[in-house]
């Protein structure tokens, strides 16, 4: 299990208010951001600040997806002027380089983005997306191969997991909905 996943586990099970866990978690986010910045952001021999800003925005929100508009808002809070077209162009480049993942909204009206973490057990896996908060959960478990095999054998259907998304409510949003009723 990677250090970042272990910290996610600790944070989920021992609370987000634990100062030590939050410091460790922030340290891991910074480490991931620096690794991506150092190893991957170079295109055509140079780094662009715009890509760095986008990666920084996504690195600060590892547990959820962001729209291009939310990335723009994050960058503007840093006092940086950037055009939304530039954001979209760089998001497309980063997606094509396999650095970030692109997910459509449930109604296909816009896309959401998330940094791709390279520590998945299975190359292809399904994604669960919360229709309330937009959180993406990577369904990266051994059961998935059984499901893919079942679809192929019993239904003559080849599933492409990389772009497959199941929509529903995440645990946090279910709790919020139950507490409001």
Note down, in words, how this protein is organized:
This protein has 181 residues and is of the alpha+beta class. The chain has two domains: 1-117, Winged helix-like DNA-binding domain superfamily/Winged helix DNA-binding domain (Arc Repressor Mutant, subunit A, Orthogonal Bundle); 120-181, Ferric-uptake regulator, C-terminal dimerisarion domain (Dna Ligase, domain 1). Helices cover 50% and strands 14% of the residues. It contains seven helices and six strands. The protein has helices at residues 3-14, 19-39, 49-59, 68-77, 84-96, 143-155, 171-180, and strands at residues 66-67, 100-104, 111-115, 126-130, 136-139, 165-168. The strands form two sheets. It has a three-stranded antiparallel β-sheet with strand order 1-3-2. Helix 2 packs antiparallel against helix 3 (49-59) and helix 4 crosses helix 5. It is globular and about 55 Å long. It starts with a helix and ends with a helix. The mean pLDDT is 75.
pLDDT average, as an integer?
75
* CATH H level, superfamily name of the largest domain: Winged helix-like DNA-binding domain superfamily/Winged helix DNA-binding domain
CA radius of gyration: 18 Å
CATH-assigned fold name of the largest domain: Arc Repressor Mutant, subunit A
Based on Cα principal axes, name the global outline: globular
Strand content: 5-15%
Give the assembly state of these chains.
single chain
Report the count of strand segments: 6
Helix content: 40-55%
Strand order of the largest sheet: 1-3-2
- The low-pLDDT segments are none
How many discrete structural domains? 2
The helix/strand series, from N terminus to C terminus, equals HHHEHHEEEEHEH
The number of helical segments is 7
Question: Class by helix and strand content?
Answer: alpha+beta
């Amino acid at each position: 299990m990677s250090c970042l996943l272990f910290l996610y586990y600790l944070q989920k099970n021992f609370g987000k208010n634990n100062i030590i866990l939050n410091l460790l978690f922030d340290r891991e986010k910074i480490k991931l951001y620096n690794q991506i910045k150092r190893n991957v952001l170079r295109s055509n021999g140079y780094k662009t600040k715009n890509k760095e800003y986008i990666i920084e925005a996504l690195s600060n929100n590892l547990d959820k997806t962001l729209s291009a508009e939310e990335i723009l808002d994050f960058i503007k809070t840093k006092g940086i002027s950037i055009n939304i077209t530039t954001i979209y162009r760089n998001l497309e480049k980063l997606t094509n380089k396999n650095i970030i993942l692109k997910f459509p909204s449930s109604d296909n009206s816009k896309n959401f983005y998330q940094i791709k973490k390279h520590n998945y057990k299975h190359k292809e896996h399904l994604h669960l997306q919360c229709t309330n908060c937009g959180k993406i959960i990577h369904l990266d478990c051994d059961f998935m191969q059984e499901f893919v095999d079942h679809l192929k054998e019993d239904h003559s259907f080849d599933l492409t997991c990389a772009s497959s998304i199941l929509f529903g409510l995440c645990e946090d949003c279910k709790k919020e909905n139950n507490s409001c009723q």
